[in-house]
Each structure stands twice: as structure tokens, then as C-alpha cells.
Amino acid sequence: xxxxxxxxxxxxxxxxxxxxxxxxxxxxxxxxxxxxxxxxxxxxxxxxxxxxxxxxxxxxxxxxxxxxxxxxxxxxxxxxxxxxxxxxxxxxxxxxxxxxxxxxxxxxxxxxxxxxxxxxxxxxxxxxxxxxxxxxxxxxxxxxxxxxxxxxxxxxxxxxxxxxxxxxxxxxxxxxxxxxxxxxxxxxxxxxxxxxxxxxxxxxxxxxxxxxxxxxxxxxxxxxxxxxxxxxxxxxxxxxxxxxxxxxxxxxxxxxxxxxxxxxxxxxxxxxxxxxxxxxxxxxxxxxxxxxxxxxxxx
Length: 299
Known about the structure:
Elements: H1 2-17, E1 63-67, E2 76-80, H2 91-101, H3 105-109, E3 112-113, E4 122-128, E5 131-136, H4 146-160, E6 168-173, E7 176-177, E8 180-181, E9 186-187, E10 204-208, E11 214-215, E12 219-225, E13 231-238, E14 243-250, E15 260-266, E16 272-281, E17 288-298
Parallel strand pairs: 5-6, 11-17
Antiparallel strand pairs: 1-2, 1-3, 4-5, 6-7, 8-9, 10-12, 12-15, 13-14, 13-16, 16-17
């Protein structure tokens, strides 16, 4: 019975598919189109940039140390080109720091020396009203006799007062202003100036060009002199010792026995290593006396 019913159902379905309609049967399968919209997120990458700032270091200016002399009461104060690099951005501090470090071995071999004790440190400089108070470490007061004490005072005074706006120097040790230096009792109770710190100057002091300097030609020969009638000779020599220029000039001494300034522009035909030499001609026998020589490099 179940089989008969199944057959009837099949036959019925067959007749239904073959109906009387002549219309075509749509056998197309619908196609579903799916549109996908992709959204891309923009990614921003930030790169950190590190900027390194190189500290500005000022080159030291001319220092005043001592230079051997053929004179019996030498050595004398001399303007020296620094042999060590600067320490900081302030030119005055950088120069004083180079001064207390002292001469290099090459400079020592050329007869340059310092009487500032090893280990001395510049603690600070305060400039008010044209007076620089230079604060030094305790080592500055140690060792030496009265000449050494006066010598280190002269080195600080002449080095510091080359800077514009500074006319005098007071001394402090460890932050305390002092009136007397060392056991010798060197009087520094009043501001020290170049005018009252001259006992260790040579008869002719060359400030420009400094010992060991490189100079462009023409250049200025300048300094302080205390010689008979103020007049003295200068000589420019090349690396072979050949004289390329020789003449005389005069220091403007305010009175007999007092150093006075001199300045003259020179244009020698010379290049490379050479020297600037100043000397006084002896009124007694015409020989060279008070000779000072600065080796330089002419640019």
C-alpha cells in the first residue's frame, strides 16, 4: 500500500511539470553580488629626533708667564700664547684656567715658567666697576718666597687686565677676599693694577705678538718699554735667522724710570717660522742689551 501511494505521487508530480502552459520556464539561478567596502586605517609614525648641542668653549687669550733672560735679574714677565685648550665658554675664565695649569713641556723647553703653584684652581671671577675679584683655591698661597708671591700676583694681574672693562684685580682665596698673601705678607689690600705691578717686567715687554703666536702680515708690534730716552731697536728674522726688517721705535714713557706704551705696524716680507726681537743699544759700548725674543709663525 505504501508503494502504491508513492507511485501515485510521482505520477502526479510528472503531470504537474508538463502542464498546458506554453510559457518558458525560467531556470536561471539568481546571482547575488556582494560588494565589500574595505576601510584602511592610516597609520602615522612619529620618530623622535635627539639634538646634541656641543658646548661652546672659548679659546684662551694671551697669558703672562715668565721667560728666561740673559739679564742677571731675570726671568721676566712675558706674554705667552696658551699651550692648552680652553675649559669653558667664558674667555676670561678659560684664560685664567690655562694660566694656572702652567706651561707645556715644549714651552718649558723654550725657557717659559710659572710661579703659580701646581694644583691651583680658579674658583670664580666677579667683575664690578672695573675691578675683577679673582677667587683662587688655597694652593695659590703655598710655597715660594716674596719674589714668587709677587710673581704669581703679577701673572694674574697682567693676564686679567688685558680684557676690556677690567682695570684692576683683587684676590680672594676660598671665597674670602684677602689683604695679604702668604707668610711673606705681600700686600694686596688695594686693587692691583698694571701700573702698580711692574717690578718683574723686562726693560722692553712685547705684548703683541705673544711668544709662540701665529701672526698675519702686516702686524702690530706693541708693548711697554722703559729704556734710555724710550728708544729701542726691533728686528724681524726668518727661520734661518736672516734679518728681513730692522728699525727703531720709542716707548712713550710718562717719566724716567716708568714703563710707557709703544705700538708700531710692521709689514716684513716674510712667511713661516721666524722671530720678533727687541733690544736696546748700549750707550756705553753699542752692544745689544735688554734683548727679548719671541718666536712666531708669520702667516
